[in-house]
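Give me structure tokens for this 205-residue protein.
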Amino acid sequence: MTDTQPLTALVLNCTLNPSPAASSTELLGQQVLDELAKHGVTGSQVRVVDHDIRPGVELDMGEGDEWPAIRERVMAADILVLATPTWMGQHSSVAQRVLERLDAELSETDDEGRQLTFGKVAIAVVVGNEDGAHHITAILFQALNDVGFTVPAQGGTYWNGEAMHSVDFKDLDETPEETASATATAARNAAHLARLLRETPYPPA
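Here you go.
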């Protein structure tokens, strides 16, 4: 196993702003991808709100549902980066929709009885000009782990603005050192863990 073993990552950007609007969530998600690239991981982003993701907990909710195509990209990636803004101290409704659709993975297994997500790593990304990042990260970690993803040590990064102010992450002149450091750590540990899981998968059920 070498540090140059290629891996892939996918950011699901759960902003409420459709393209081409600027997105703080996209910016921090891209910073995670940039850090992952330093460890041999290539990646891309999907702005989920641009797609018709139907409510439900099935793999495919029927005609017009665009989740199956996004799911294909999730399942092809070694690392999932779930990125959400903060609204009223909570993750976005788009992020909640993603979690609900991932619930279908509980019934998807390989030939040895393992969930198809068992070899995949997940990172949480949270931005907002209000409090809530730790609360949201805890929710994302629990939900992603529950459906089979593995969370690395310090596998989250976030930025919260000053309370009662309106400055967004995308408006900053530079990324705060604390956020940049957390992003680098999350990416480094995620790449390391993803390679370990590829080399030594979880045991059969």
